[in-house]
Design goal:
heterodimer, A: mainly alpha, two-stranded antiparallel sheet, 10 helices, 2 strands, globular, B: alpha/beta, Rossmann fold, Alpha-Beta Plaits, 2 domains, 6-stranded mixed sheet, 4-stranded antiparallel sheet, 9 helices, 13 strands, 32% helix, disordered N terminus, disordered C terminus
């Protein structure tokens, strides 16, 4: 019996890998989508850097602005490639009946979702490499080896949070036309109070409290900590990681609820 | 470990007193039928009759609120992978990953099944050879539909659900699709077809069930449905002006009318009647134009069946009022 189970599990893991291949192929082949997924955050990277090369941020120990916004843009890039991309594409796949078709095949639902999550993780990885590469080449901003653990843990947790939330929120999106609106409305305002574009210091306490509830602030802070030359230790902050972990749990819960519902049905 | 295998003989589908309610509304009200292995079974009915609900319960997309259902010996509500391994589903509207090509999609979906048909064979079967490297996005409606059929067949299913398989096809493409479906039956596959094209049902189905208002109101072979074979045949022709109905020979008839120059003879003995009329015409050198003998069509029967039920419904509603 265990032999049969092992063979079955092995085959399913193979199916996940197989599906990731095709998800990747479909993603990169759609040039417009690929282009805009990447160009949007990277455009900000160039615009922000050209604003004021000489400014320093007093509240962060006087680090150059470059060292603040490169991780800030990376945080935004993680969110667009995972949350925004996942939510919108799930809404489209559901609307086109692809999810319903998948449900009628023997591919286990968990395997399909795992492949979509895995494929998204690869896209986030590509985004990270490009952002860090551009940051290093254009602005001379580098992650230090000592804070690498902080960078990696924050990226992994952040990707988990925003990918699962992206699947979860698809339930609330009635049709694909509404998807960009719902998705941007849940993300964009929060980025302004979450230390993504500029440091959140000096903001009214109410806004700080709001930002602290949601997962964008800890993602941005975690990444910025990894770049800040004054950071001591591995760049891991218990508060940020805890908030991200809680949201990862929320995201997984919402994703599982999504999984339980027949994939073809809304609501 | 207990293994339940899908049955390889006997009934493909067994439904007993199937019911489905959405809140107060009862969409399916006690439906029963059986589909044998290797049969093409067709479910007909107007929109809102409960066809889609019934099929989606059998496909495992919806849960029933009452009654029994068995598909290849398994309960579709259990959502077992084993069942999905042996069932192919061609839905009316279900998309594919539009950035992948025809070949890639057939490969990708094929891998989900432990038994599968070769990619090239499927592409040939649905005649998409010239489009094999075209992305699904760039296919025409009819080509997409043929791709749907290929994806429904990729797991070499024992049972295939086809929902309106030829909607939007031109007549030539429809004939081709029919011959493809017929060839499946030669391979011993069971086909469960829903359609609202009567000629499709007539052409393909071994048996037809007509559904209306959540119930099956007629079930039988297309040529026998609703007592079709027992109804009078209709002989039609046009009579030159010099002649009238009274001049015609004595034939067994149920009804005989003349409208303008068009004669209609409804008869239960069409062979005898036709022979006497044509003999008479030859003897008297009468030129009978547009001579034809027809059985009532499946469509006539269908419209009659669904109409009488609708009228019934209305009288029930009026009675309640």
């Amino acid at each position: 019996m265990s032999a049969v189970a092992t063979t079955g599990a092995k085959r399913d893991v193979g199916l996940v890998a197989w599906q990731i291949r095709y998800e990747q192929r479909a993603f990169w082949r759609n040039r417009t989508r690929g282009f805009f997924t990447f160009v949007f955050p990277l455009m900000f990277l160039v615009i922000f850097a050209s604003l004021d090369k000489s400014s320093h941020i007093k509240s962060l120990g006087g680090i150059p602005y470059d060292e603040f916004f490169v991780p800030g843009i990376l945080a935004y890039g993680v969110i667009t490639t995972s949350y925004v991309n996942m939510a919108i594409s799930t809404a489209i796949l559901r609307d086109q009946g692809v999810l319903k078709r998948m449900q009628g095949t023997p591919l286990p639902r968990w395997a399909y979702v795992a492949a979509r999550v895995g494929s998204t993780a690869l896209i986030v990885l590509a985004m990270t490499v490009i952002t860090l590469g551009l940051g290093a080449v254009l602005y001379g901003v580098h992650v230090r080896a000592s804070t690498l653990p902080g960078l990696i843990v924050t990226l992994v947790l952040g990707t988990a949070v925003f990918t699962t939330l992206g699947i979860g929120i698809a339930r609330l999106i009635p049709n694909p036309e509404a998807a960009p609106v719902v998705v941007n409305l849940t993300v964009f305002p929060l980025t302004f109070i979450s230390s993504v574009w500029f440091p959140a210091n000096g903001m009214p306490k109410a806004l700080v409290d709001i930002a602290n509830v949601f997962p964008i602030r800890p993602l941005a802070d975690g990444l910025e900590r990894a770049f800040n030359p004054y950071t001591t230790g591995a760049g891991l902050n218990a508060h940020d990681l805890r908030t991200l972990a809680i949201w990862a749990a929320v995201g997984i819960f919402l994703m599982l609820r999504f999984l339980r519902k027949p994939l073809g049905e809304t609501g | 470990m207990t293994t339940t295998h899908t049955q390889t003989d006997g009934l493909a589908i067994e439904v007993r007193d199937l019911r489905k309610s959405y809140g107060e509304v009862e969409a399916v009200r006690g439906v029963s039928f059986e589909v044998s292995r290797g049969e093409v079974f067709c479910l007909l009915g107007p929109n809102g009759a409960g066809k889609t609900t019934t099929v989606e319960i059998l496909e495992g997309y919806r849960t029933r609120t009452g009654g029994e259902a068995r598909v290849l010996g398994l309960d579709p509500a259990d959502g077992r992978r084993e069942l999905r391994e042996h069932v192919g589903i061609v839905l009316q509207q279900s998309g594919v990953q539009t950035d992948l090509t025809v070949t890639e999609l057939i490969e990708m979906y094929g891998r989900y099944y432990s038994r599968r048909r070769p990619v090239d064979e499927l592409i040939e079967l649905v005649e998409l050879g010239e489009k094999r490297d075209t992305r699904a996005r760039d296919l025409s409606g009819g080509q997409r539909r043929r791709l749907d059929l290929a994806l429904g067949l990729v797991g070499d299913p024992d049972l295939l659900f086809l929902d309106e398989p030829t909607t939007g096809f031109d007549p030539g493409a429809r004939r081709q699709a029919w011959s493809t479906i017929r060839s499946l039956c030669d391979l011993g596959k069971t086909v469960f077809l829903t359609t609202h094209y009567m000629d499709e049902a007539q052409h393909l189905a071994n048996r037809v069930a007509v559904m209306n208002a959540g119930q099956i109101i007629a079930l039988g072979r297309p040529e026998e449905l609703g007592g079709r074979d027992l109804r009078p045949a209709e002989i039609r022709f046009s009579l030159p002006e010099a002649w009238s109905l009274g001049d015609l020979p004595d034939v067994p008839f149920e009804q005989r009318t003349l409208e303008g120059d068009r004669v209609l003879v409804a008869t239960k003995e069409p062979v005898v009647a036709a022979q006497r009329i044509t003999t008479w015409a030859l003897d008297h050198e009468v030129d009978l134009g547009h001579f034809s003998v027809t059985q009532p069509s499946l469509e006539d029967i269908y419209l009659e069946l669904t109409k009488s039920v609708m009228e019934n419904e209305q009288t029930v509603e009026e009675a309640i009022r």
